[in-house]
Fold this protein.
Amino acid sequence: MKINTETKLIGLIGYPLGHSFSPLMQNAAFERYLLNKIYIPIEVSPENLETVVKGISKMNFDGFNVTIPYKIDIIKYLDEIDEYAKCIGAVNTVSIKNGVLKGYNTDGIGFLKSYKQNTGTKIEGKKVFVLGSGGASRAVSMTLALDKADKIYICNRTYEKALALSNDINEKVGECSVAVPFFHEDMKTAIDDSDILINTTNVGMFPNIDFSPIDKDLLNEKLTVCDVVYNPKKTKLLQEAEEIGCETVFGLSMLLYQGAEAFEIWTEKKAPVDLMLKILEDGLKEN
Ligand code: ATR
C-alpha cells in the first residue's frame, strides 16, 4: 500500500507489547478492501498512557486496540462506552469518529461468534462451566450471561475471585452464575451438569504445552470443550477432550473473531474472516 496524507492509522496499545498477530491480521484485511489504513503497534509505558491517548485523539487515527495491562485503565480516557464493555468493565477496542473516543469489548463477542460459527448452536439456555476468573474470563462469562446462558459455573484456583465475578454477573445481568470451589468433587458435580466447558486460564499455553488446566477424568463426551489458549492451536485440554469424544472449539477462532469484530467497528465493512484465519494459521506455524 502507498502511505500518504490520507492514510488512517489504527494502533495497538499495551505494555510491554510482546508478540502479536493483530498487525498481520488487520493489515491483510485492510489490503483486501484496498483501504488506506495501517495498523501499528504502539508500546506505551504507564506514565504516558493519558498523554498518548490524548495525542492519538488529535491525530489521523480511526481507533486502536487495547491490550494488557490497559483494558481497564483506558476507560477513564474515553468519551463513550458501549453496553457490553460497560458490563464487562474492560475495553479492548476503541473507535474514533469526529474526535469522539468510544470503547468496545470484542473479546467476549469474539468467543460467542467463534462458538456459534464452529458448533452451529446458540448459548441461550445452555449451562456453562468456565475455568478461571481473570480478564479473559470476565469478558467471556459476562457475554455468556448477556446471551442468556441458563447457568454459568465459575471455577478458579483463587475462590474469592470466582465469587467476586459470579456476584458481579448476578448483579449486572441477573441471577445465573455460581462460584465453584477448585476441588475435584465440586468441579465434577458442576461439569456433569454443564453442556459447555471453557478454559480461560493460560494453562497449556506455549511453551508449557504439556499441561491441561483440568484432570481428564472430569471431562465427559457430552461436553463441548473450548479453550481461549491459541498457541498451540490444539492444546492438551482440547487433545484430551477430542480423545473422549467431545466437540471442541479452538482458541484461534476466538482470536480471529475478536479481531474481525474490531475490523468491522473501524471500517463498517464485513471482515474477510477466511483471509484473517489463514494469516493467523500461517503466523502460528512460523512462530
Ligand atoms: P487473562 O487476562 O489472560 O485472563 P489474568 O487476568 O492474569 O489473565 O487471569 C489468569 C487466570 O488464570 C486466573 O483466573 C488465574 O487464577 P488465579 O486467580 O488463582 O491466579 C488462572 N491461572 C493461572 N495459572 C493457573 C494455574 N496454574 N492453575 C489454575 N489457574 C491458573
